[in-house]
Specification:
- By secondary structure, this protein is α+β, with helices and mostly antiparallel strands.
- About 20% of the residues lie in helices and about 30% in strands.
- It is built from five helices and 14 strands.
- The strands form three sheets. A seven-stranded mixed beta sheet has the order 2-1-3-5-4-6-7, with helices on one face. Strands 8-9-13-12 form a four-stranded antiparallel beta sheet.
- The longest helix is centred in the middle third of the chain and has 14 residues, at about 125-140.
- The chain starts with 6 loop residues before the first strand and ends with a strand.
């Protein structure tokens, strides 16, 4: 895999605080002049499984030629490997903890490699700054990373289901993104969410304020919402909670 990225996008569960700034400062030191964009930093903490199903949808409409540094890494400092993945004409660096498994499975021609190189000086608890950012810089320069190709079937998470009928992410409005693809769901069907059964609507303006519904969001996922209200609080749902099944009229 050769490097030809034009920008770097960061996706983490770090939230507010000191960590994102440290990664950006290290990137500016090692790759000055390369644009760095914050894609998302409030992924559910420690839930690489949830982020894994959101990631393919997040990057679906992003520009090609992008390098993503993705860090949801509760096993940092342990035995898990680092990965370099090429998929959808972009590249991804992060841990082999399931985070990239759905992406590799769903993207035609995707390739993954384990990263053998590590810096001489590296903290045990902040591999985003101390390993994955230097990997990006070293790869950009064409330096050796000790890459070993790995089959998709050997990645952590390769045996996970194609979809995840659960809440992946809650946005600031309280809308609930799920791990279900919306394209093949019947628009006449209702979705069981918490204790309520919600009908389909194309968008918010088709639903009276205060009413709940499901729709196909801009990422292609089934999303649960209440028009002008927080669906997470109204339905008592949080990231990781199950949703479904879909119910069709008799």
């Amino acid at each position: 895999m050769t490097s030809s990225f034009r920008r770097i996008l960061l996706a983490t569960d770090f939230g507010d605080g000191i960590y994102v700034g440290q990664m950006r400062a290290r990137l500016d030191e090692l790759l000055p002049g390369v644009p760095v964009v914050d894609l998302v930093h409030d992924l559910p903490p420690f839930r690489a499984d949830l982020a894994a199903y959101l990631l393919p949808a997040l990057v679906r409409d992003m520009p090609h030629g992008t390098l993503y540094i993705c860090v949801v890494d509760p096993g940092v400092g342990g035995e898990r490997d680092g990965l370099l993945v090429h998929a959808q004409d972009s590249w991804f660096i992060g841990p082999d903890n399931g985070l990239f498994a759905p992406l590799v499975r769903s993207a035609s021609g995707a390739k993954a490699a384990r990263i053998g190189w590590r810096p001489q000086a590296m903290s045990a608890s902040f591999h985003g700054r101390d390993w994955f950012v230097p990997v990006a810089a070293r790869w950009s320069a064409g330096a050796d990373l000790g890459l070993t190709p790995v089959d998709a079937a050997d990645l952590v998470g390769s045996d996970w289901p194609t979809e995840l009928p659960a809440v992946l992410y809650v946005d600031r409005f309280g809308n609930l993104m799920t791990g279900l693809q919306a394209a093949d769901r019947p628009r006449t069907g209702s979705l069981l969410a918490g204790a309520r059964t919600l009908p389909y609507a194309r968008t918010f303006c088709e639903v009276a304020p205060g009413n709940g519904f499901w729709y196909e969001n801009a990422l292609g996922l089934v999303e649960i919402a209440i028009n002008q209200g927080p669906a997470d609080r109204a339905l008592g749902l949080s990231p990781g909670d199950p949703v479904g099944p879909f119910l069709t009229p008799d």
